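Q: Give me the 3D complex with 5,6-dihydroxy-NADP.
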Amino acid sequence: MNGFVYDIPTKVYFGSGQLQHLGMELSRLGKRILLVYGGGSIKKNGLYDSVTWELKRMGLMFFELGGIAPNPRVESVREGAALCKKEKLDVILAVGGGSVIDAAKYIAAAACVDFDPWKFMSEQAPLKEALPVVTVLTIAATGSEMDSGGVITNLSTNEKLCRFAPPLQPQVSFLDPKNTYSVSRYQTACGTADIMSHIIEVYFNMTPDLQMLDGIMESLMKTVICYAPVVLADPENYEARANLMWAGSWAINGFIKGGKQQAWSCHPMEHELSALYDITHGLGLAILTPRWMEYTLDETTASKFVQFGVNVFSIHPGLPPMEIAMESIRRISEFFFHTLGLNRTLGEIGIDDSQVTLMAQKACRGDRILGFKTLYPQDVEKIYQMCI
Ligand code: NZQ
Ligand code: ZN
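A: Here is the predicted complex, encoded as structure tokens.
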């Protein structure tokens, strides 16, 4: 087991009615705020009014940048950073999902440098400081509200790149499950698939590590499997939305990772899909994950699938290991495609195999993915083919 540093410096206000603390938290961090939001859902569900009322109540000056697209574009980051510099803004307030929060994080970093923000992603340009970021989360999915990562898309180069850096960690996040009541059935399903994937990417690891972390991951996965159908049937079920929301934050905030160094596998493959076809992140993950599992299952990895099948899906431990392993893949497929109702194949969403060679090379960054099983471009290409 490797040693690790535990440090998750985001203050979380969880639950209904916590927004009354927003103004106080913002005024602690600065005086001039950039309010960042998406395509309009917060105006429809009333959250925009609640947030701006709170800002006005505290006498805070704010500017707005709306219209952040899902799979946020580098152009929005440039626009936000320019506004911050021009108006001398000192705090970024993101009200939305992962796309809004990721854009806000990179606006916060870009406001502190003189070079083009795409260089953060494409050239790993130094990212040593950022304006403070505060978030009001509106969808349970990416965990961006409690991690230091961000994913930005550049349509002119067909690239979607991810980078984690400590200055991007939100200082404060407001998580009110009621703010997710209006999330559509489809986006709820995609967000749920994303949460499951974040846990699976860490859980599927053959290096012996802290047993308690495996137990926590199994509990998180069981929580998601239990509450997702409740939310789909009853979108305003507070307990179910709350469980999904908090599980989503803990799936990726660094805690379950412990000292594991292993790279993720399905995420780099998915990011190439959404870079090229602009599909929803969680949908791509749902299609890829069971095929990646089938591809990586063999005598050397079967024990992990057995642990997954027995502890998460309660498959009888007395069955032959390979039988348990294959049944566990069948159960997770059933969860993605039947319980969540997501598309089973890339073909169903209009994606053919014309770009798989290119996507496989890009997913491996010209090398390989050092994940649960090492994947070379030819392996990734086969996994894409299995998805079509
Ligand atoms: O834009 P609006 O109008 O707000 O609508 C959004 C959007 O259409 C809607 N939505 C969000 N909250 C809602 C709502 N609709 C009604 N009521 C609400 N309360 O949902 C749609 C999707 O929003 P988006 O922010 O794109 O979803 P998500 O949170 O899944 O974010 C996806 C992005 O995050 C990246 C993904 O790659 C993708 O670009 N990721 C970020 C990560 C991170 N920062 O750590 C890790 C993830 O693995 C992921 O890669
Ligand atoms: Zn994800």
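A quick observation: The beta strands are 11-14, 32-37, 61-65, 91-96, 133-137, 149-154, 159-164, 172-175, 369-370, 374-375.
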